[in-house]
Amino acid sequence: MLNFGLVEMRLVAPRDGWPNPEAGPAASGADQVLRDARVYATVAEAVADCAHVYATTVRKRGITKPVVTPEAAAGAIRAEPGRSAILFGPERSGLETDDVALARTILTVPINPEFGSLNLAQAVILVAYEWSKGEGLASPPVVDLGEPAPHEELEGMIGQLDDMLEAARFFFPPERAATSRRTLRTLLTKAGWTSQEVRTMRGVLSALDGAKRRR
Q1: Is 79 helix (H, G, I), strand (E, B) or coil?
Q2: What is residue 69's predicted lDDT score, i.e. its pLDDT?
Q3: Which residue of 51, 106, 117, 183 is most buried, as measured by CB atoms within 10 A?
Q4: CA separation for the pair 180, 2 (Å, rounded)
């Protein structure tokens, strides 16, 4: 939850009571979520102040309700006034039918129908991730990859390599030389080399060529 900006957790009749000393190590430092968690005796009490309740389940259990994806649910929660709650069931059994009946909408993750099993942590992270997309959370830092090398520099590297391969009699048989050169050029122009990368590679080639000449 905390990874994706969600901090308000409500627990319904925790099996092992609350607080649970085993929860801290398992939460890997998400102490804020544990510290502020609120405990209720029933699901109805836990969602009493929520105008919109989503039940996460892969089965409709005979209840006719709208079914949405996590992405659609996140958009609706942002657009709708009032508090919203997302219900997750126990690890082993999921939500009971009576719990699903309390919800206005069923939230289902699009998943392979041949293998629809998700554990609780997986379900939470998928739903929380969709919510986080609208939160403006920190993104991976942008890395300056450098300006692409001018074509002249790239041609110099390709020419240097060509000379070395020619001296090593790489282009054999002669009738395949043009095809081999074209393939190498295609390979070397795909990479989007920077000037520094070209200089480094040419240094490698010069070192290899010099070592060969010294032998």
Answers
A1: helix
A2: 94
A3: 106
A4: 54
Q: Which pLDDT band holds residue 195 (cuts at 50, 70, 90)?
A: confident
Chain centroid to Cα 157, Å, comes to 37
Structure tokens at 155: 């041609």
Encoding tokens for residue 111? 């998943």
Tokens (6 digits) for 198: 């070209």
Token digits for 115? 């293998």
Does residue 183 have a pLDDT over 70? Answer: yes
Asked whether the beta carbons of 120 and 95 are under 8 A apart, the reply is no
Which amino acid type is present at position 145?
L
The length of the chain, given as a count of residues: 215
Token pair of 153 as six digits:
């520099």
Q: What is the mean pLDDT of residues 105-125?
A: 88
- Give yes or no for residue 191 having a pLDDT over 80: no
SS3 28: coil
Radius of gyration of the chain (CA): 30
C-alpha to C-alpha distance for 42 and 119, rounded to whole angstroms = 22
